User: What shape does this take?
Amino acid sequence: MKKQLYINGAWVTGSEYVPHHSPHTGETIAEIPVATPEEVEQAIQAAYAAKTVIAKMPSHKRAEILEKLAHSLAKNADRATEILALEASKPIVHARAEVQRTIQTYKFSAEEAKRLHGETIPLDAAPGGEGRVAYTVREPVGVVGAITPFNFPLNLVAHKVGPAIASGNTIVLKPAMQTPLSALLIAELLDEIGLPPGIFNVVTGRGSVVGDKIVTDERINKITFTGSPSVGISIRNRAGLKRVTLELGSNSAVIVDKGVDIDKIISRCVTGAFSFQGQVCISLQRVYVHEDLYVSFVEKFIDKTKQLTIGNPLDEATDIASLISSQDVKRALDWIEEARQQGAKVATGGKAEGNVLHPTVILDAAPSLKVSCQEVFAPIVVINKVSSVEEAISHVNDSRFGLQAGIYTNDVNVALTAAEQLHVGGVMINDIPTFRVDHMPYGGVKESGMGREGVKYAIEEMTELKLVVFNRN
Ligand code: NAP
Assistant: This one.
């Protein structure tokens, strides 16, 4: 089916199209417009012109739009689930979970729309401040340029669209070309709800054209980007004085301390490593297990991994389906081969059938190997033996990235030390780093990015703080 761009409240036929393939079957599932710079210009102009419309809209009205969107998505949940399974090759159970989380994200956004407030400042705390009343308000930045990745195409769009509407901004969204249908579905639902024209615009197309125009155009006040570190860093370099939030990648780790009941955590760790084929920014990539538990942890982890079902993403029983592209399969196999050649042991997996990479467990991998130190973004996990939590913490921190980390321990002091010393955006005690719900502050340090999402926190980054001072003297 031929899709259209959504610009200024209207569906616009593109001047150029590319076929959109299912990564699992290779079949063409749609024709997607590849927006030209002129089409992106129209979207930016529309968003710029609609700034005053949404900025003047009362917060209860913005909340109502988001409530209706959550409701409408719930009504269309089966359709949204199927789109995710088809275009992202997301196993349907995970696709369904993403749709439910997306509904939550829009609900949180509706609630936050009503809580946009500043504070009073006691100016008389400074000599010369007497007789003055001061307060702050939060104002929308104006136009938000949102650029999103393929891996959570519905919920990561929601993490930008929800807070932007809640805080009175207009949006130009460029979804990943690998997964544009999920974003176009949201445009369809907002259109049905009767969102005034220009507030939300979707332009599909190449990052180098559409993304670049969004990043460099002066009418766009803020860029919110989720994607790979390399693209994120280049966006930061080109965005000038725009505000920029970057939600980038990682090679997340969990530490397993001595004395932990590993039977209780194996299944959770396997889920963290292999959900959506490891294509999750907080996927569990590195495990550091205390030497007392290492042998049995490895054995049980491999057993559980072998029980995963490989199959079609539309099948309810499937745990593992295709990676997003054949290039990613090749890259992952190359990295596994590098590990093998450098003396690491591939304990299970390590091979591909079509675009499906078998869930892979690697042991004895040096920290310098790509599977250890880069973001694998594939179903590959490295399990390492450590003699203490201190040693494990130093390995976890020996990374260019720092999104989230986890530690399983029975010792509260060890937990507190880890919370203090792990250099990441979020520490999960007695859980994997892969834990996320949609209202918690979420984001990384180092090459994992800058700024925070999680509706309330995204809103802070999409609003300007204005100070008002009354002189009563
Ligand atoms: P990606 O290749 O960086 O693409 C992300 C988006 O950027 C796509 O829409 C892409 O467009 C666009 N883009 C590409 N080049 C651009 C340019 N020069 N200027 C502006 N935009 C450009 O990432 P991905 O492969 O889709 O997603 C995987 C990455 O996202 C991983 O690194 C993962 O860790 C990260 N991620 C992070 C989080 C988080 O919250 N921290 C969450 C999910 C994913 P095209 O359609 O043209 O490719």
The pocket of NAP is lined by residues 147-152, 156, 174, 176-177, 206-208, 211-212, 215, 226-228, 231, 234-235, 247-249, 281, 375, 377, 403, 449 (CB under 6 Å). The mean pLDDT is 98.
